[in-house]
Design brief:
The protein is of the alpha/beta class. Helices cover 44% and strands 19% of the residues. It is built from 19 helices and 22 strands. Helix 16 (498-512) packs across helix 19. The radius of gyration is 32 Å and the shape is elongated. The termini are far apart. The mean pLDDT is 94. It binds S-adenosyl-L-homocysteine, iron/sulfur cluster and FE3-S4 cluster (F3S). Iron/sulfur cluster binds next to helix 7.
Protein backbone atom coordinates (compact mmCIF):
# COMPACT_ATOMS: atom_id res chain seq x y z
CA UNK A 1 0.00 0.00 0.00
CA UNK A 2 1.13 3.55 -0.74
CA UNK A 3 2.61 5.71 2.03
CA UNK A 4 0.29 8.46 3.36
CA UNK A 5 1.55 12.01 3.86
CA UNK A 6 -0.60 13.92 6.31
CA UNK A 7 0.04 17.66 6.02
CA UNK A 8 -3.03 18.76 7.98
CA UNK A 9 -5.92 16.92 9.63
CA UNK A 10 -9.24 18.67 10.33
CA UNK A 11 -10.20 19.21 13.96
CA UNK A 12 -13.75 20.08 15.15
CA UNK A 13 -12.38 21.97 18.16
CA UNK A 14 -10.24 24.16 15.94
CA UNK A 15 -13.19 24.55 13.57
CA UNK A 16 -15.25 26.00 16.42
CA UNK A 17 -12.71 28.80 16.92
CA UNK A 18 -13.05 32.01 15.03
CA UNK A 19 -9.82 33.65 13.87
CA UNK A 20 -9.68 37.43 14.02
CA UNK A 21 -7.82 38.37 10.88
CA UNK A 22 -9.02 37.61 7.40
CA UNK A 23 -6.54 37.84 4.58
CA UNK A 24 -7.37 38.20 0.91
CA UNK A 25 -4.84 36.21 -1.08
CA UNK A 26 -4.44 36.41 -4.84
CA UNK A 27 -3.96 33.01 -6.45
CA UNK A 28 -0.60 32.55 -8.18
CA UNK A 29 0.48 28.87 -8.16
CA UNK A 30 2.71 27.89 -11.06
CA UNK A 31 2.14 24.21 -11.94
CA UNK A 32 5.21 22.16 -12.87
CA UNK A 33 5.92 21.23 -16.49
CA UNK A 34 5.74 17.58 -15.38
CA UNK A 35 2.14 18.10 -14.25
CA UNK A 36 1.17 19.83 -17.49
CA UNK A 37 2.83 17.10 -19.56
CA UNK A 38 1.01 14.38 -17.69
CA UNK A 39 -2.50 15.84 -17.81
CA UNK A 40 -2.67 18.16 -20.83
CA UNK A 41 -5.43 17.02 -23.19
CA UNK A 42 -6.64 14.39 -20.68
CA UNK A 43 -10.09 14.21 -19.10
CA UNK A 44 -11.23 15.44 -15.68
CA UNK A 45 -14.41 14.22 -13.97
CA UNK A 46 -15.98 16.06 -11.02
CA UNK A 47 -19.01 14.69 -9.16
CA UNK A 48 -20.57 17.30 -6.88
CA UNK A 49 -22.95 16.59 -4.02
CA UNK A 50 -24.62 19.17 -1.76
CA UNK A 51 -25.45 22.81 -2.11
CA UNK A 52 -24.71 25.71 -4.45
CA UNK A 53 -21.48 26.49 -2.54
CA UNK A 54 -20.14 23.13 -3.70
CA UNK A 55 -21.34 23.75 -7.27
CA UNK A 56 -19.39 27.02 -7.32
CA UNK A 57 -16.34 25.21 -5.89
CA UNK A 58 -16.61 22.67 -8.73
CA UNK A 59 -16.36 25.54 -11.22
CA UNK A 60 -13.15 26.75 -9.57
CA UNK A 61 -11.66 23.24 -9.52
CA UNK A 62 -12.53 22.76 -13.20
CA UNK A 63 -10.99 26.18 -13.88
CA UNK A 64 -7.75 25.06 -12.22
CA UNK A 65 -7.70 21.77 -14.17
CA UNK A 66 -8.49 23.56 -17.44
CA UNK A 67 -5.52 25.86 -16.76
CA UNK A 68 -3.23 22.81 -17.21
CA UNK A 69 -5.08 21.80 -20.38
CA UNK A 70 -7.53 19.24 -18.99
CA UNK A 71 -10.95 18.66 -20.59
CA UNK A 72 -14.17 18.11 -18.68
CA UNK A 73 -15.94 14.76 -19.00
CA UNK A 74 -19.17 13.32 -17.66
CA UNK A 75 -17.77 9.80 -18.06
CA UNK A 76 -15.63 8.72 -15.08
CA UNK A 77 -14.13 5.76 -16.98
CA UNK A 78 -12.43 8.20 -19.40
CA UNK A 79 -10.97 10.36 -16.63
CA UNK A 80 -7.32 10.83 -15.62
CA UNK A 81 -8.34 12.99 -12.66
CA UNK A 82 -11.59 12.36 -10.75
CA UNK A 83 -12.82 14.51 -7.89
CA UNK A 84 -15.67 13.66 -5.53
CA UNK A 85 -16.91 16.92 -4.02
CA UNK A 86 -18.82 15.93 -0.89
CA UNK A 87 -21.63 17.16 1.37
CA UNK A 88 -21.98 16.43 5.08
CA UNK A 89 -25.27 18.14 5.90
CA UNK A 90 -27.26 14.94 6.53
CA UNK A 91 -26.37 11.28 6.89
CA UNK A 92 -28.03 10.32 3.60
CA UNK A 93 -25.78 12.82 1.77
CA UNK A 94 -22.76 11.05 3.27
CA UNK A 95 -24.14 7.62 2.37
CA UNK A 96 -24.45 8.67 -1.29
CA UNK A 97 -20.82 9.83 -1.28
CA UNK A 98 -19.58 6.51 0.10
CA UNK A 99 -21.58 4.81 -2.67
CA UNK A 100 -19.76 6.93 -5.27
CA UNK A 101 -16.33 6.26 -3.70
CA UNK A 102 -17.16 2.54 -3.86
CA UNK A 103 -17.95 2.79 -7.60
CA UNK A 104 -14.42 4.06 -8.24
CA UNK A 105 -12.87 0.86 -6.89
CA UNK A 106 -13.69 -0.92 -10.17
CA UNK A 107 -12.97 2.10 -12.35
CA UNK A 108 -9.51 2.43 -10.80
CA UNK A 109 -8.82 -1.27 -11.11
CA UNK A 110 -9.20 -0.84 -14.90
CA UNK A 111 -7.42 2.52 -15.07
CA UNK A 112 -4.45 2.50 -12.71
CA UNK A 113 -3.27 5.98 -13.75
CA UNK A 114 -6.46 7.64 -12.55
CA UNK A 115 -5.90 10.02 -9.62
CA UNK A 116 -8.92 10.07 -7.28
CA UNK A 117 -9.43 13.07 -5.01
CA UNK A 118 -11.95 13.63 -2.22
CA UNK A 119 -12.87 17.16 -1.16
CA UNK A 120 -15.77 19.22 0.20
CA UNK A 121 -17.56 19.31 3.53
CA UNK A 122 -17.31 15.61 4.53
CA UNK A 123 -13.56 15.78 4.32
CA UNK A 124 -13.59 18.48 7.03
CA UNK A 125 -14.43 15.73 9.55
CA UNK A 126 -11.54 13.71 10.97
CA UNK A 127 -13.56 10.51 11.46
CA UNK A 128 -14.53 10.51 7.78
CA UNK A 129 -10.90 10.83 6.66
CA UNK A 130 -9.85 8.05 9.04
CA UNK A 131 -12.63 5.76 7.78
CA UNK A 132 -11.85 6.50 4.13
CA UNK A 133 -8.09 6.08 4.53
CA UNK A 134 -8.71 2.67 6.02
CA UNK A 135 -11.58 1.35 3.92
CA UNK A 136 -10.98 2.97 0.54
CA UNK A 137 -7.27 2.71 -0.36
CA UNK A 138 -8.04 3.86 -3.90
CA UNK A 139 -8.63 7.47 -2.75
CA UNK A 140 -5.33 9.29 -3.40
CA UNK A 141 -5.73 12.89 -2.22
CA UNK A 142 -7.88 14.53 0.47
CA UNK A 143 -8.24 18.30 0.53
CA UNK A 144 -10.70 20.55 2.34
CA UNK A 145 -13.05 23.43 1.60
CA UNK A 146 -10.32 25.87 2.69
CA UNK A 147 -7.61 24.68 0.36
CA UNK A 148 -9.18 24.30 -3.06
CA UNK A 149 -6.42 26.65 -4.22
CA UNK A 150 -3.97 23.80 -3.43
CA UNK A 151 -5.47 21.41 -6.00
CA UNK A 152 -2.65 21.70 -8.56
CA UNK A 153 0.04 21.78 -5.86
CA UNK A 154 -1.33 18.56 -4.35
CA UNK A 155 -1.46 16.88 -7.76
CA UNK A 156 2.15 18.01 -8.28
CA UNK A 157 3.19 16.52 -4.91
CA UNK A 158 1.28 13.34 -5.66
CA UNK A 159 2.89 12.65 -9.03
CA UNK A 160 6.35 13.42 -7.63
CA UNK A 161 6.21 11.58 -4.28
CA UNK A 162 3.65 8.93 -5.31
CA UNK A 163 2.15 8.88 -1.82
CA UNK A 164 -1.41 9.46 -0.64
CA UNK A 165 -1.94 12.99 0.55
CA UNK A 166 -4.13 14.55 3.25
CA UNK A 167 -4.21 18.34 3.50
CA UNK A 168 -7.30 19.56 5.30
CA UNK A 169 -7.12 22.47 7.72
CA UNK A 170 -10.06 23.52 9.83
CA UNK A 171 -10.13 27.14 10.80
CA UNK A 172 -8.83 29.00 7.79
CA UNK A 173 -10.21 32.50 7.56
CA UNK A 174 -8.82 33.49 4.21
CA UNK A 175 -10.39 34.56 0.96
CA UNK A 176 -8.68 33.49 -2.25
CA UNK A 177 -9.32 35.73 -5.26
CA UNK A 178 -8.49 35.45 -8.94
CA UNK A 179 -8.73 31.68 -9.18
CA UNK A 180 -9.59 30.52 -12.69
CA UNK A 181 -13.18 29.43 -13.29
CA UNK A 182 -14.87 27.16 -15.83
CA UNK A 183 -18.60 27.79 -15.59
CA UNK A 184 -20.93 24.81 -15.77
CA UNK A 185 -23.55 26.83 -17.67
CA UNK A 186 -23.04 29.75 -20.01
CA UNK A 187 -26.25 31.60 -19.08
CA UNK A 188 -26.63 31.36 -15.30
CA UNK A 189 -24.01 31.56 -12.58
CA UNK A 190 -23.42 31.53 -8.85
CA UNK A 191 -21.28 34.27 -7.31
CA UNK A 192 -20.02 33.88 -3.73
CA UNK A 193 -20.44 36.95 -1.57
CA UNK A 194 -19.61 35.37 1.80
CA UNK A 195 -17.89 32.16 2.80
CA UNK A 196 -18.49 30.17 5.98
CA UNK A 197 -21.08 30.70 8.69
CA UNK A 198 -20.98 32.06 12.24
CA UNK A 199 -24.53 31.15 13.25
CA UNK A 200 -23.83 27.72 14.76
CA UNK A 201 -27.42 26.47 14.66
CA UNK A 202 -27.16 23.53 17.06
CA UNK A 203 -28.00 20.85 14.46
CA UNK A 204 -25.77 22.13 11.66
CA UNK A 205 -22.32 21.00 10.53
CA UNK A 206 -21.76 23.85 8.05
CA UNK A 207 -19.97 26.32 10.42
CA UNK A 208 -17.45 23.55 11.16
CA UNK A 209 -16.93 22.50 7.55
CA UNK A 210 -16.90 25.95 5.95
CA UNK A 211 -15.21 28.00 8.67
CA UNK A 212 -15.59 31.55 9.80
CA UNK A 213 -18.04 33.83 8.05
CA UNK A 214 -16.08 36.16 5.80
CA UNK A 215 -17.21 38.64 3.16
CA UNK A 216 -15.55 39.22 -0.19
CA UNK A 217 -14.61 42.77 -1.08
CA UNK A 218 -17.48 44.43 -2.98
CA UNK A 219 -15.17 45.33 -5.86
CA UNK A 220 -14.12 41.70 -6.36
CA UNK A 221 -17.80 40.65 -6.39
CA UNK A 222 -18.81 43.39 -8.82
CA UNK A 223 -15.90 42.54 -11.09
CA UNK A 224 -17.00 38.87 -11.25
CA UNK A 225 -20.61 39.93 -11.94
CA UNK A 226 -19.56 42.45 -14.59
CA UNK A 227 -17.70 39.74 -16.52
CA UNK A 228 -20.89 37.63 -16.47
CA UNK A 229 -23.01 40.55 -17.72
CA UNK A 230 -20.50 41.27 -20.49
CA UNK A 231 -20.50 37.60 -21.50
CA UNK A 232 -24.29 37.72 -21.90
CA UNK A 233 -25.29 35.67 -18.86
CA UNK A 234 -29.02 35.87 -18.06
CA UNK A 235 -29.03 35.10 -14.33
CA UNK A 236 -26.76 35.61 -11.32
CA UNK A 237 -27.40 34.09 -7.89
CA UNK A 238 -25.44 35.70 -5.06
CA UNK A 239 -24.38 33.02 -2.58
CA UNK A 240 -23.77 32.95 1.13
CA UNK A 241 -24.91 30.71 3.99
CA UNK A 242 -26.37 33.93 5.41
CA UNK A 243 -26.30 36.67 2.76
CA UNK A 244 -27.89 39.20 5.12
CA UNK A 245 -24.76 39.38 7.25
CA UNK A 246 -22.69 40.38 4.21
CA UNK A 247 -20.21 43.11 5.10
CA UNK A 248 -20.39 42.83 8.90
CA UNK A 249 -16.77 41.68 9.08
CA UNK A 250 -15.53 44.25 6.54
CA UNK A 251 -16.40 47.09 8.92
CA UNK A 252 -16.58 49.58 6.03
CA UNK A 253 -20.31 50.23 6.19
CA UNK A 254 -21.12 48.15 3.10
CA UNK A 255 -24.30 46.12 3.66
CA UNK A 256 -26.09 43.41 1.72
CA UNK A 257 -28.74 45.90 0.54
CA UNK A 258 -25.99 48.11 -0.87
CA UNK A 259 -24.25 45.20 -2.61
CA UNK A 260 -27.55 43.88 -4.02
CA UNK A 261 -28.38 47.29 -5.48
CA UNK A 262 -24.94 47.66 -7.05
CA UNK A 263 -25.20 44.22 -8.70
CA UNK A 264 -28.77 44.95 -9.89
CA UNK A 265 -27.52 48.16 -11.50
CA UNK A 266 -25.05 46.19 -13.66
CA UNK A 267 -28.09 45.16 -15.71
CA UNK A 268 -28.13 41.35 -15.43
CA UNK A 269 -31.63 40.29 -16.60
CA UNK A 270 -32.26 38.13 -13.50
CA UNK A 271 -30.75 38.49 -10.04
CA UNK A 272 -31.35 36.11 -7.13
CA UNK A 273 -29.70 35.48 -3.77
CA UNK A 274 -29.43 32.62 -1.27
CA UNK A 275 -29.81 32.12 1.73
CA UNK A 276 -31.50 34.66 4.00
CA UNK A 277 -31.47 34.38 7.80
CA UNK A 278 -34.75 35.80 9.19
CA UNK A 279 -33.43 37.93 12.06
CA UNK A 280 -30.54 39.30 9.97
CA UNK A 281 -32.80 40.19 7.03
CA UNK A 282 -33.06 43.99 6.98
CA UNK A 283 -35.95 46.06 5.63
CA UNK A 284 -33.65 48.00 3.29
CA UNK A 285 -33.24 44.75 1.32
CA UNK A 286 -37.04 44.74 0.77
CA UNK A 287 -36.80 48.27 -0.65
CA UNK A 288 -34.01 47.32 -3.05
CA UNK A 289 -35.93 44.20 -4.15
CA UNK A 290 -39.04 46.28 -4.78
CA UNK A 291 -37.11 48.95 -6.69
CA UNK A 292 -35.30 46.79 -9.27
CA UNK A 293 -37.41 44.71 -11.69
CA UNK A 294 -34.41 42.48 -12.44
CA UNK A 295 -34.30 41.26 -8.82
CA UNK A 296 -36.58 38.22 -8.90
CA UNK A 297 -39.60 38.47 -6.64
CA UNK A 298 -38.72 35.23 -4.90
CA UNK A 299 -37.21 34.78 -1.45
CA UNK A 300 -35.87 31.67 0.25
CA UNK A 301 -36.32 32.34 3.96
CA UNK A 302 -35.71 29.19 6.02
CA UNK A 303 -37.86 28.98 9.15
CA UNK A 304 -36.70 25.46 10.24
CA UNK A 305 -39.56 25.19 12.80
CA UNK A 306 -42.73 27.06 13.76
CA UNK A 307 -42.36 26.20 17.45
CA UNK A 308 -40.56 28.81 19.55
CA UNK A 309 -39.36 26.11 21.92
CA UNK A 310 -37.74 24.12 19.11
CA UNK A 311 -36.34 27.28 17.49
CA UNK A 312 -34.69 28.17 20.79
CA UNK A 313 -33.15 24.74 21.13
CA UNK A 314 -32.00 24.89 17.50
CA UNK A 315 -30.20 28.15 18.36
CA UNK A 316 -32.22 30.06 15.76
CA UNK A 317 -32.39 33.70 16.85
CA UNK A 318 -36.05 34.61 16.15
CA UNK A 319 -39.54 33.59 17.23
CA UNK A 320 -42.32 32.44 14.92
CA UNK A 321 -44.10 35.74 15.55
CA UNK A 322 -41.03 37.76 14.53
CA UNK A 323 -40.73 35.58 11.43
CA UNK A 324 -44.36 36.20 10.43
CA UNK A 325 -43.99 39.94 11.10
CA UNK A 326 -41.07 39.99 8.69
CA UNK A 327 -43.13 38.09 6.10
CA UNK A 328 -45.92 40.67 6.48
CA UNK A 329 -43.50 43.57 6.04
CA UNK A 330 -42.11 41.94 2.89
CA UNK A 331 -45.58 41.26 1.46
CA UNK A 332 -46.70 44.83 2.22
CA UNK A 333 -44.03 46.16 -0.17
CA UNK A 334 -43.83 43.24 -2.63
CA UNK A 335 -47.35 41.72 -2.70
CA UNK A 336 -46.59 39.21 -5.48
CA UNK A 337 -43.45 37.76 -3.87
CA UNK A 338 -43.04 33.97 -3.78
CA UNK A 339 -41.66 32.66 -0.50
CA UNK A 340 -39.94 29.34 0.08
CA UNK A 341 -38.37 27.80 3.16
CA UNK A 342 -36.39 24.98 4.80
CA UNK A 343 -38.01 22.95 7.58
CA UNK A 344 -36.50 20.26 9.81
CA UNK A 345 -38.86 17.73 11.41
CA UNK A 346 -37.77 15.55 14.32
CA UNK A 347 -35.29 17.77 16.15
CA UNK A 348 -34.52 15.96 19.45
CA UNK A 349 -37.60 15.81 21.69
CA UNK A 350 -39.80 17.77 19.29
CA UNK A 351 -43.46 17.08 20.18
CA UNK A 352 -46.42 16.51 17.87
CA UNK A 353 -47.77 19.91 19.03
CA UNK A 354 -44.51 21.51 17.87
CA UNK A 355 -45.07 20.05 14.39
CA UNK A 356 -48.67 21.33 14.39
CA UNK A 357 -47.28 24.79 15.17
CA UNK A 358 -44.89 24.47 12.22
CA UNK A 359 -47.82 23.58 9.95
CA UNK A 360 -49.83 26.53 11.26
CA UNK A 361 -47.02 29.07 10.77
CA UNK A 362 -46.19 27.62 7.34
CA UNK A 363 -49.75 28.11 6.16
CA UNK A 364 -49.69 31.68 7.46
CA UNK A 365 -46.39 32.34 5.67
CA UNK A 366 -48.09 30.93 2.54
CA UNK A 367 -45.06 29.28 0.95
CA UNK A 368 -45.01 28.42 -2.76
CA UNK A 369 -42.38 25.71 -2.15
CA UNK A 370 -40.27 24.25 0.65
CA UNK A 371 -37.36 21.93 1.33
CA UNK A 372 -38.29 19.61 4.18
CA UNK A 373 -35.88 17.32 6.04
CA UNK A 374 -35.95 14.79 8.83
CA UNK A 375 -33.37 15.76 11.45
CA UNK A 376 -30.07 13.93 11.06
CA UNK A 377 -27.62 14.04 14.01
CA UNK A 378 -24.23 15.43 12.97
CA UNK A 379 -21.24 14.29 15.00
CA UNK A 380 -19.64 17.14 16.95
CA UNK A 381 -22.67 19.46 16.86
CA UNK A 382 -24.43 20.35 20.18
CA UNK A 383 -27.76 18.78 19.12
CA UNK A 384 -26.06 15.44 18.45
CA UNK A 385 -25.40 15.15 22.19
CA UNK A 386 -29.10 15.53 23.09
CA UNK A 387 -30.99 12.44 24.21
CA UNK A 388 -33.99 11.94 21.95
CA UNK A 389 -37.14 10.09 23.05
CA UNK A 390 -39.01 10.21 19.71
CA UNK A 391 -38.77 7.18 17.42
CA UNK A 392 -37.81 7.49 13.75
CA UNK A 393 -41.20 5.99 12.75
CA UNK A 394 -43.02 8.73 14.66
CA UNK A 395 -40.80 11.40 13.07
CA UNK A 396 -41.50 9.97 9.65
CA UNK A 397 -45.27 10.05 10.31
CA UNK A 398 -45.11 13.72 11.38
CA UNK A 399 -42.89 14.56 8.42
CA UNK A 400 -45.50 13.12 6.03
CA UNK A 401 -48.27 15.07 7.75
CA UNK A 402 -46.30 18.31 7.36
CA UNK A 403 -45.50 17.64 3.70
CA UNK A 404 -49.17 16.87 2.86
CA UNK A 405 -50.29 20.12 4.49
CA UNK A 406 -47.63 22.13 2.63
CA UNK A 407 -48.45 20.48 -0.69
CA UNK A 408 -52.05 21.75 -0.57
CA UNK A 409 -50.61 25.25 -0.40
CA UNK A 410 -48.09 24.64 -3.19
CA UNK A 411 -50.89 23.37 -5.46
CA UNK A 412 -53.02 26.42 -4.65
CA UNK A 413 -50.19 28.70 -5.83
CA UNK A 414 -49.56 26.58 -8.92
CA UNK A 415 -53.29 26.69 -9.80
CA UNK A 416 -53.24 30.48 -9.61
CA UNK A 417 -50.61 30.55 -12.35
CA UNK A 418 -52.75 28.66 -14.90
CA UNK A 419 -53.84 30.80 -17.88
CA UNK A 420 -51.18 33.44 -17.22
CA UNK A 421 -48.00 34.11 -19.18
CA UNK A 422 -44.62 33.96 -17.39
CA UNK A 423 -41.03 34.60 -18.39
CA UNK A 424 -39.01 31.39 -18.17
CA UNK A 425 -35.22 30.98 -18.33
CA UNK A 426 -34.80 27.79 -20.35
CA UNK A 427 -32.46 25.25 -18.74
CA UNK A 428 -32.61 22.35 -21.17
CA UNK A 429 -34.35 19.07 -21.78
CA UNK A 430 -36.90 18.21 -19.13
CA UNK A 431 -35.50 15.40 -16.94
CA UNK A 432 -38.73 13.40 -17.01
CA UNK A 433 -39.61 13.80 -20.69
CA UNK A 434 -36.92 14.37 -23.29
CA UNK A 435 -39.52 15.75 -25.74
CA UNK A 436 -39.99 18.78 -23.51
CA UNK A 437 -37.84 21.70 -22.39
CA UNK A 438 -37.86 23.00 -18.85
CA UNK A 439 -36.92 26.17 -17.04
CA UNK A 440 -37.73 28.38 -14.09
CA UNK A 441 -40.19 31.25 -13.79
CA UNK A 442 -39.29 34.43 -11.93
CA UNK A 443 -40.99 32.96 -8.83
CA UNK A 444 -38.83 29.85 -9.12
CA UNK A 445 -41.42 27.37 -10.35
CA UNK A 446 -40.27 24.76 -12.82
CA UNK A 447 -42.22 24.76 -16.11
CA UNK A 448 -42.16 22.08 -18.84
CA UNK A 449 -43.10 22.97 -22.40
CA UNK A 450 -42.48 22.00 -26.04
CA UNK A 451 -39.76 23.98 -27.76
CA UNK A 452 -36.59 23.96 -29.79
CA UNK A 453 -33.18 23.27 -28.18
CA UNK A 454 -31.95 26.60 -29.54
CA UNK A 455 -34.00 28.25 -26.77
CA UNK A 456 -31.72 26.84 -24.03
CA UNK A 457 -30.22 29.73 -22.08
CA UNK A 458 -32.86 32.18 -23.38
CA UNK A 459 -35.67 33.90 -21.50
CA UNK A 460 -38.95 33.02 -23.26
CA UNK A 461 -42.64 33.60 -22.56
CA UNK A 462 -44.69 30.58 -21.58
CA UNK A 463 -48.43 30.38 -21.00
CA UNK A 464 -49.26 28.03 -18.13
CA UNK A 465 -51.78 25.34 -19.10
CA UNK A 466 -51.57 22.78 -16.27
CA UNK A 467 -50.52 22.90 -12.65
CA UNK A 468 -49.05 20.19 -10.42
CA UNK A 469 -47.75 20.37 -6.84
CA UNK A 470 -44.11 20.77 -7.83
CA UNK A 471 -44.23 21.70 -11.51
CA UNK A 472 -46.19 23.35 -14.27
CA UNK A 473 -46.88 22.53 -17.89
CA UNK A 474 -47.23 25.26 -20.49
CA UNK A 475 -46.86 26.37 -24.09
CA UNK A 476 -44.51 28.83 -25.70
CA UNK A 477 -46.19 32.11 -26.53
CA UNK A 478 -44.96 33.73 -29.69
CA UNK A 479 -44.32 37.45 -29.36
CA UNK A 480 -46.66 38.51 -32.21
CA UNK A 481 -49.70 36.75 -30.83
CA UNK A 482 -48.84 38.07 -27.38
CA UNK A 483 -48.79 41.65 -28.68
CA UNK A 484 -52.08 41.03 -30.51
CA UNK A 485 -53.76 39.70 -27.40
CA UNK A 486 -52.40 42.67 -25.44
CA UNK A 487 -53.91 45.01 -28.07
CA UNK A 488 -57.24 43.21 -27.77
CA UNK A 489 -57.11 43.70 -24.03
CA UNK A 490 -56.32 47.41 -24.38
CA UNK A 491 -59.10 47.76 -27.00
CA UNK A 492 -61.58 46.19 -24.61
CA UNK A 493 -60.44 48.49 -21.81
CA UNK A 494 -60.78 51.54 -24.05
CA UNK A 495 -64.27 50.52 -25.20
CA UNK A 496 -65.45 50.18 -21.64
CA UNK A 497 -63.91 53.49 -20.51
CA UNK A 498 -65.98 56.59 -19.58
CA UNK A 499 -64.31 58.55 -22.37
CA UNK A 500 -65.42 56.12 -25.06
CA UNK A 501 -68.91 55.83 -23.60
CA UNK A 502 -69.31 59.61 -23.80
CA UNK A 503 -67.96 59.60 -27.38
CA UNK A 504 -70.40 56.89 -28.43
CA UNK A 505 -73.22 58.87 -26.78
CA UNK A 506 -72.52 61.97 -28.93
CA UNK A 507 -71.96 59.81 -32.01
CA UNK A 508 -75.43 58.31 -31.45
CA UNK A 509 -76.97 61.77 -31.01
CA UNK A 510 -75.51 62.93 -34.34
CA UNK A 511 -76.76 59.83 -36.12
CA UNK A 512 -80.27 60.32 -34.71
CA UNK A 513 -80.49 64.08 -35.45
CA UNK A 514 -82.05 64.41 -38.93
CA UNK A 515 -80.92 68.03 -39.45
CA UNK A 516 -77.29 67.31 -38.42
CA UNK A 517 -77.25 64.20 -40.56
CA UNK A 518 -78.39 66.19 -43.61
CA UNK A 519 -75.74 68.85 -42.97
CA UNK A 520 -73.07 66.18 -42.61
CA UNK A 521 -74.08 64.43 -45.85
CA UNK A 522 -74.13 67.74 -47.73
CA UNK A 523 -70.65 68.59 -46.45
CA UNK A 524 -69.36 65.17 -47.56
CA UNK A 525 -70.91 65.63 -51.00
CA UNK A 526 -69.51 69.14 -51.44
CA UNK A 527 -66.04 68.00 -50.36
CA UNK A 528 -65.95 65.56 -53.24
CA UNK A 529 -67.02 68.14 -55.89
CA UNK A 530 -64.97 70.67 -57.76
CA UNK A 531 -66.32 73.86 -56.12
CA UNK A 532 -66.30 77.40 -57.58
CA UNK A 533 -65.42 80.35 -55.28
CA UNK A 534 -69.01 81.02 -54.31
CA UNK A 535 -69.62 77.36 -53.48
CA UNK A 536 -66.39 77.26 -51.45
CA UNK A 537 -67.63 80.13 -49.28
CA UNK A 538 -70.92 78.30 -48.83
CA UNK A 539 -69.03 75.11 -47.86
CA UNK A 540 -66.91 76.88 -45.25
CA UNK A 541 -69.97 78.60 -43.77
CA UNK A 542 -71.84 75.30 -43.52
CA UNK A 543 -68.83 73.58 -42.01
CA UNK A 544 -68.47 76.32 -39.38
CA UNK A 545 -72.13 76.03 -38.50
CA UNK A 546 -71.84 72.22 -38.28
CA UNK A 547 -68.64 72.23 -36.16
CA UNK A 548 -70.03 74.84 -33.79
CA UNK A 549 -73.07 72.78 -33.03
CA UNK A 550 -72.60 71.79 -29.32
CA UNK A 551 -73.24 68.09 -30.02
CA UNK A 552 -70.76 68.01 -32.91
CA UNK A 553 -68.09 70.00 -31.09
CA UNK A 554 -68.29 67.62 -28.12
CA UNK A 555 -68.12 64.68 -30.51
CA UNK A 556 -65.03 66.12 -32.27
CA UNK A 557 -63.28 66.90 -28.99
CA UNK A 558 -63.80 63.34 -27.70
CA UNK A 559 -62.81 61.81 -31.04
CA UNK A 560 -59.53 63.73 -30.98
CA UNK A 561 -58.79 62.55 -27.43
CA UNK A 562 -59.38 58.94 -28.49
CA UNK A 563 -57.26 59.31 -31.64
CA UNK A 564 -54.39 60.70 -29.55
CA UNK A 565 -54.67 57.74 -27.17
CA UNK A 566 -54.61 55.30 -30.08
CA UNK A 567 -51.38 56.86 -31.36
CA UNK A 568 -49.89 56.64 -27.87
CA UNK A 569 -50.81 52.93 -27.55
CA UNK A 570 -49.38 52.21 -31.01
CA UNK A 571 -46.12 53.90 -30.07
CA UNK A 572 -46.01 52.03 -26.78
CA UNK A 573 -46.43 48.68 -28.46
CA UNK A 574 -44.05 49.75 -31.24
CA UNK A 575 -46.43 48.41 -33.87
N1 LIG B 1 -27.24 28.39 5.33
C1 LIG B 1 -28.43 27.89 4.85
C2 LIG B 1 -28.39 26.46 4.37
C3 LIG B 1 -27.88 25.43 5.32
S1 LIG B 1 -27.97 23.76 4.89
C4 LIG B 1 -29.48 28.16 5.90
O1 LIG B 1 -29.18 28.50 7.00
O2 LIG B 1 -30.63 28.03 5.59
C5 LIG B 1 -29.58 23.64 4.15
C6 LIG B 1 -30.65 23.12 5.04
O3 LIG B 1 -30.35 21.82 5.50
C7 LIG B 1 -30.88 23.91 6.31
O4 LIG B 1 -31.63 25.05 6.10
C8 LIG B 1 -31.61 22.90 7.16
O5 LIG B 1 -33.00 22.96 6.97
C9 LIG B 1 -31.09 21.57 6.66
N2 LIG B 1 -30.21 20.94 7.66
C10 LIG B 1 -29.05 21.41 8.15
N3 LIG B 1 -28.55 20.56 9.07
C11 LIG B 1 -29.42 19.53 9.16
C12 LIG B 1 -29.46 18.35 9.95
N4 LIG B 1 -28.52 18.07 10.83
N5 LIG B 1 -30.52 17.51 9.78
C13 LIG B 1 -31.49 17.79 8.88
N6 LIG B 1 -31.50 18.89 8.13
C14 LIG B 1 -30.47 19.76 8.26
FE1 LIG C 1 -26.20 25.98 9.23
FE2 LIG C 1 -27.58 27.75 10.61
FE3 LIG C 1 -25.36 28.50 9.32
FE4 LIG C 1 -27.53 27.86 7.95
S1 LIG C 1 -27.33 29.59 9.38
S2 LIG C 1 -25.44 27.19 7.52
S3 LIG C 1 -28.46 26.24 9.17
S4 LIG C 1 -25.47 27.11 11.04
FE1 LIG D 1 -23.45 20.29 2.25
FE2 LIG D 1 -21.37 21.72 2.82
FE3 LIG D 1 -23.29 22.75 1.38
S1 LIG D 1 -22.41 20.36 4.18
S2 LIG D 1 -25.09 21.71 2.15
S3 LIG D 1 -22.02 21.07 0.80
S4 LIG D 1 -22.08 23.80 2.88
Amino acid sequence: MKKTVIENMPDMNQARKRVESIKTIYYNYEPSQKLIDRFKGKYAYIRTFGCQANVRDEETMMGLLSSIGMIKTEDPTKASVAIINTCAVRENAEDKVFGEIGEFKNIKAKNKDLVLLLCGCMVEQKHIIEKTLEKYPHVDIFFGTHNIQDLLRLLDEFITKKSRYVDVSSFEGNIIEKMPVTRIENYKAYVNITYGCDKFCTYCIVPYTRGKERSRDINDILEECKVLVDEGFKEITLLGQNVDSYGKDLKNGVTFAHLLEEVAKLGIPRLRFLTSYPSDFKDDVIDVMAKYPNIMKYLHLPIQSGSDDVLKRMGRRYTSEEYLNLVNRIRAKIPNIALSTDIIVGFPNETYEDVLKTIDVSLKADYTSAFTFIYSPRKGTPAARLVDDVTYEEKNKRFKELVSALEVNFKKHADEMVGKVYEVLVDGESKKNKELLSGYTENNKVVHFKGDESLIGQIVKVKILESHVYSLFGELVDEDSLIKSKCEEIKKNIESSALVKEYLHYKGMIENDHELEQMHNKLLFMKKCDLNDEEKVEYLKLKEEYDNNPIVSNYNRLKKEIDDLKIEVKNLLKL
